[in-house]
Specification:
The complex is a heterodimer of chains A (341) and B (145).
Chain A (H helix, E strand, L loop, with lengths): L2 H10 L13 E10 L2 E11 L4 E6 L5 H8 L7 E6 L8 H5 L2 E4 L11 H11 L5 H11 L12 H13 L5 E5 L7 H17 L3 E5 L3 H4 L5 E6 L2 E7 H7 E6 L1 H10 L5 E4 L5 E6 L10 H4 L13 H8 L7 E2 L10 H7 L1
Parallel strand pairs in A: 3-7, 3-8, 5-6, 6-7
Antiparallel strand pairs in A: 1-2, 1-4, 8-9, 10-12, 11-12, 11-13
Helix pairs in contact in A: 5-6
Chain B lengths: L14 H14 L12 H8 L3 H13 L3 E4 L3 E4 L7 H22 L4 H18 L7 H8 L1
Antiparallel strand pairs in B: 1-2
Helix pairs in contact in B: 1-3, 2-3
The chains are: A alpha/beta (341), B mainly alpha (145).
């Protein structure tokens, strides 16, 4: 028990740790991760409230995995602080991992062990391990408990890792792309298991995923990383309200361009007009305008966007969209670009 | 009832609001009778593959509005006499229709008086066909205010 760490944490951030218990399940403050000259995570601050399901999204290479590795105490930050359940994961990894369930991007189960043998081992070293629950979950998932993990499919390994994580009754679940490599049946089973868990007790979930359609039904909050910086962080309902897609006819185009500031993204359509994506938060001046109320309202042209469409617009999606107004990401990652050249 | 709710996550309407509205419609249409049981939060969340907190939020709002009742240790039920919603729904429908009309009128560059004249003409023409009580009903009421 380090008294020094706790006093430091308490003075450093007023939301990361309370006098008795943490009010924030995960508090990241000004976190940066550098690999040599490459800055993989840049000045990320985020807060995950207890009981929420926080979807951390980003394209490949956006910094998700680096950030998750730091959250799990597998590597230190270059700058900034992280508190998980009020503790520094780098300094108190072992103690903290007793309270956290993890499904890693590549399930790290011992290849030669069977689930049954692993359950026996974990039951001896962890107080809170529910062996019966673990084996029951495996059966529900259809994962054989008597075969070595190396002979199981990717999906079976992931679900076994989830069953293992849930069996320790964790306060916090960190799931790093749990649906990767799962077919749609296995994905559905995984989501059902998470729903059961959420219904049964208070648990906080941080999940990275590329299955946007699946995760958007469960997430309460969404954070989107772009080039290592957190470009968007919103409760899911606010996110849907913030972005909208509008069709602008050729006739309206000139008028709108003269009166409105540039949209977040735009692309020409086959009909001669353009399709715009508007970040309503960044263009509040449009809300009261007849132009906005008119052609951009629900009655004509304005279309809701699902998480996938919002993700494509925010992460650049240069192949799809011509970004007209880059979203607020901390300055361009020059070092990273040069290194990749 | 096999599967009375359908959720569209890509809709601009939040999922909890979609659940709330659809349950409200089921209750007002009588598909869910007074005092009948509604699924538990957990069962409905699993069926729709959504976060239980989302279902719970919809239920809580409907309980607050008197449509649903929670019986402690038992479950959630449709209220014995759920409040009539016709007036509220009709109001909302009218508001939305009027907004659509105003938007199109603005785009066409119409004046307010032109819109009023057009509504009155449409009322006179169509209202009678649908058995409305005379073409004057709308302006008559407006005058007495």
């Amino acid at each position: 028990m380090s008294g020094e760490t706790e006093t430091r944490a308490a003075t450093e951030t007023n939301r990361g740790i309370g006098a008795d218990e943490p009010r924030t399940a995960i508090a990241v403050d000004g976190a940066s991760v550098r690999y040599g000259r490459i800055e993989a995570v840049r000045q990320v601050s985020l807060a995950v409230e207890p009981g929420s399901v926080y979807a951390l999204l980003g394209r490949n290479g956006a910094g998700k995995s680096s950030l998750v590795r730091c959250l799990l105490g597998q590597r230190p930050l270059s700058a900034g602080t992280i508190r998980l359940l009020g503790e520094d994961p780098w300094r108190h990894r072992t103690r903290l991992m007793e309270r956290i369930g993890v499904v890693a991007e590549r399930p790290d189960l011992p290849p030669h062990a069977t689930a049954r043998a692993l359950a026996g081992f974990v039951a001896r070293v962890r107080d809170r391990f529910d062996r019966t629950g673990f084996l029951a979950r495996l059966e529900r998932f259809g994962v054989p408990a008597h075969r070595p993990f190396r002979s199981l499919s990717r999906g079976q390994q992931t679900t076994a890792a989830l069953a293992l994580a849930l069996a320790t009754d964790p306060e916090l679940l960190v799931l790093d792309d749990p649906t990767l490599g799962l077919d749609s049946v296995a994905r559905k089973a995984l989501y059902c298991e998470l729903i059961e868990t959420l219904a049964a007790r208070e648990v906080t979930i941080l999940v990275t995923s590329h299955d946007l359609a699946g995760i958007e039904r469960i997430a309460t909050h969404v954070g989107i990383l772009v080039n290592g910086g957190l470009a968007v962080e919103e409760p899911i309902d606010a996110l849907r309200d913030r972005f909208c897609r509008v069709s602008v006819s050729a006739a309206e185009l000139a008028r709108l361009e003269a009166t409105a500031s540039a949209p977040l993204c735009r692309r020409p359509t086959a009909w001669g007009g353009e399709e715009w994506i508007v970040d309503r938060q960044r263009q509040p001046e449009l809300e009261g305008q007849p132009d906005f109320e008119g052609p951009w309202s629900d009655a004509s042209g304005r279309e809701p966007m699902d998480l996938e469409a919002i993700f494509e617009a925010v992460t650049g999606g240069d192949e799809v969209w011509r970004p007209a107004r880059p979203i607020a990401v901390p300055e361009e990652p020059v070092a990273k670009r040069e290194a990749l050249r | 009832m096999a599967r009375p709710l359908h959720i569209d996550p890509s809709s601009a309407t939040p999922i909890w609001s979609q659940i709330e509205e659809q349950l409200r419609r089921l209750v007002t249409a009588g598909s869910l009778a007074p005092r009948s049981a509604v699924p538990s939060v957990r069962d409905l969340a699993r069926e729709l593959t959504v976060n239980p907190a989302t279902v719970s939020k919809a239920y809580q709002r409907l309980v607050a509005q008197g449509l649903l009742e929670v019986r402690r240790g038992d479950g959630t039920y449709v209220a014995e006499s759920p409040p009539g919603l016709e007036a509220g729904e009709r109001n909302e429908l009218l508001t939305r229709a009027a907004e659509r009309m105003v938007i199109e009128a603005l785009q066409a560059g119409a004046r307010k008086s032109e819109v009023e004249t057009a509504v009155q003409a449409a009322w006179n023409r169509l209202g009678r066909e649908h058995g409305a009580d005379g073409g004057d009903a709308l302006p008559e009421k407006a005058r007495t205010r």
